[in-house]
Design a protein that fits this description.
The protein has helices at residues 4-11, 17-32, 36-50, 53-56, 66-81. By secondary structure, the chain is an all-alpha fold. This is SURP motif domain-containing protein.
């Protein structure tokens, strides 16, 4: 059975530090936006218009880095929804 770290590595095979930051930033923005689905659709539309696949291609479902983007988006949504520890223990 593979570990989570091994699956993360497989999901983003040749991810540079710049790509990782960009994907995580967009995933965080989409996850935090109240209407994140619309934001994502707008970003996909901009990708189609600008054809800047090198920079924003991960938004497209057929891009090799798209699974990493989805993973980051879900992770951020879970982090947002996770309850924080109560401050009553002070």
């Amino acid at each position: 059975m593979e570990t989570s770290a091994a699956m993360d590595h497989r999901a983003a095979p040749s991810l540079s530090a710049e790509e990782k930051r960009r994907i995580e930033r967009v995933a965080r923005c989409v996850a935090r936006d109240r209407d994140g689905d619309l934001t994502e659709k707008l970003l996909l539309r901009l990708l189609a218009i600008t054809r800047n696949g090198r920079r924003w291609g991960f938004l497209a479902p057929d891009h090799p880095l798209h699974p990493y983007y989805l993973q980051q988006k879900v992770s951020e949504r879970c982090r947002i929804l996770r309850p924080r520890p109560a401050a009553a223990d002070r």
